[in-house]
Specification:
Elements lengths: L1 E6 L3 H12 L4 E6 L2 H8 L6 E5 L8 H8 L6 E6 L4 H7 L6 E4 L4 H17 L3 E5 L2 E4 L4 E4 L2 E3 L3 H12 L5 E2 H8 L8 H14 L5 E4 L3 E4 L4
Parallel strand pairs: 1-2, 1-3, 3-4, 4-5
Antiparallel strand pairs: 6-7, 7-8, 8-9, 10-12, 11-12
Helix pairs in contact: 2-3, 6-8
C-alpha cells in the first residue's frame, strides 16, 4: 500500500485531491493542513508520496515541511502552488521533488505526474545495506539481521530512519528532538540518549557514533 500525504490548508482542494487519487487506485491518503499535523502523520506512518501546497498556514511553509519529512523518508514530492516567483522557485530548488504544478492544475496532468511518482517508487531500490549482515526493507518497513527481523519500537524506528537516510552524515540533536518529540515541550536529551543506546544495543554490528555537542551518525558499511 502506498501512503500519500496531502499537505494543503484549503479543505476543498485537499478533499478534491483525495477523491481524485482514490478514484485511480488503492492508495492510503492522509491530509494535513500545517507542519505540526504533517509531522504527526509522518511519525506514525511511512510516507511514499507528498502532494504539497507551498504557502500553508503556520510557522513553516510547505517547502520546509517537506524538507523535514525527507529527513525521515525519501518520498516522491509534487508541489502544487499558485506561486512561481523567483524567490519561491529558488527555495523549492533546494528540495528534491518530482514535479511543480501551478494551480488551478489540470487533472490529467496531475494524474500523469502522480502515476510517474508511483512508477518511480516501484522501481526504486527497496533494500538498503546497514552493515555486513544487516538490511532494511523500505517497502515492508522492517529491519533484518542475517535474515531475522529485528523488532524496533516506533521511536527507535524513526531515529534509525533519520540516521539511515543520511548515512555517513551527522544528524544534529535538535533535528532528532524536533522529529521525535515535536509535540512535547522540554529537554529531551535523556530520552534521546536512552533511545540511541537501545538502538545501538539491538544493532551491535552497525557503526553508530556520538559526536559530543553535535549529534549522531551511522557510518556507511565498508
Amino acid at each position: 500500500m502506498i501512503n500519500v500525504l496531502v499537505l494543503e490548508d484549503d479543505f476543498v482542494i485537499a478533499t478534491d485531491i483525495e477523491e481524485l487519487l482514490q478514484s485511480t487506485g488503492a492508495y492510503k491518503i492522509y491530509i494535513a493542513s500545517n507542519y505540526q499535523d504533517a509531522v504527526h502523520i509522518a511519525t506514525r506512518v511511512y510516507i511514499h508520496i507528498i502532494i504539497s501546497d507551498i504557502h500553508i498556514k503556520g510557522d513553516l511553509d510547505g517547502i520546509d515541511t517537506v524538507k523535514n519529512i525527507q529527513s525521515l523518508y525519501k518520498p516522491q514530492v509534487v508541489f502544487l502552488t499558485s506561486f512561481n516567483d523567483d524567490i519561491t522557485l529558488q527555495k523549492a530548488s533546494k528540495v528534491e521533488f518530482a514535479s511543480y504544478l501551478l494551480k488551478p492544475f489540470v487533472e490529467k496532468e496531475f494524474l500523469t505526474v502522480f502515476k510517474l511518482c508511483v512508477i518511480k517508487i516501484d522501481h526504486n531500490e527497496n533494500m538498503k545495506k546497514v552493515s555486513a549482515n544487516c538490511l532494511y526493507d523500505f517497502l515492508q518497513q522492517k529491519l533484518f539481521y542475517k535474515n531475522q527481523e529485528i523488532e524496533l519500537t516506533p521511536k527507535e524506528q524513526k531515529l534509525f530512519l533519520l540516521l539511515l537516510n543520511e548515512q555517513g552524515k551527522i544528524i544534529p540533536f535538535d533535528i532528532i528532538d524536533e522529529m521525535l518529540w515535536f509535540d512535547q515541550v522540554g529537554d529531551h536529551s535523556s530520552k534521546r540518549r536512552q533511545l540511541f543506546f537501545r538502538l545501538r544495543s539491538k544493532l551491535p554490528e552497525a557503526s553508530f557514533h556520538t559526536l559530543k555537542y553535535q549529534g549522531y551518525i551511522l557510518d556507511k558499511p565498508l
